[in-house]
Amino acid sequence: NAGVTQTPKFRVLKTGQSMTLLCAQDMNHEYMYWYRQDPGMGLRLIHYSVGEGTTAKGEVPDGYNVSRLKKQNFLLGLESAAPSQTSVYFCASTDGASLAQYFGPGTRLTVL
Amino acid sequence: AQKVTQAQTEISVVEKEDVTLDCVYETRDTTYYLFWYKQPPSGELVFLIRRNSFDEQNEISGRYSWNFQKSTSSFNFTITASQVVDSAVYFCALKNSGTYKYIFGTGTRLKVLA
Known about the structure:
heterodimer; A: mainly beta; seven-stranded mixed β-sheet; 56% strand; B: mainly beta; four-stranded antiparallel β-sheet; 12 strands
């Protein structure tokens, strides 16, 4: 039981490049989330999904897109990376009964 | 509006001291959930506890205890006899019943010195 996994763990991009972060969970959770963590700002919600085929905007969605084609996967895309998107990105899935969020190990992204 | 405030940015204590991490929340909903998460230096976020708005009983788990007071909109976390392994960033979070979103505080970095 791997829980929540994220790929890749580290990435360096140049301004304007694109990339996709992959989140996978094996707990059969319906709800999945993407957060970014920046110093002094805690965790901010980018996008979330309440089920396969559905997505919704969070607090800071600009510059990001997401897709949930399969229940176990939640993809976060950056179409044209900017230095302001340098951050640590966390994916989480939620157990509907306990409401606890289970987090992946994070992806450290640097945009030069 | 929903908001979670963790006013303590960083706390340093000496091992075996007791320490309390403060969490103050704002919400207009009558049904909501409060959480604490731990982020050790390794970086992963670990769920510690969930408290429902309709259950004001305090909870104790080993050296950890949580004090929920609706009257002051606070959900404070106390570590008794702190240990070096308790060094981490601790986040408080809020979720209203009618939403899927979680609101996190900015975190409190706890340093326990040997």
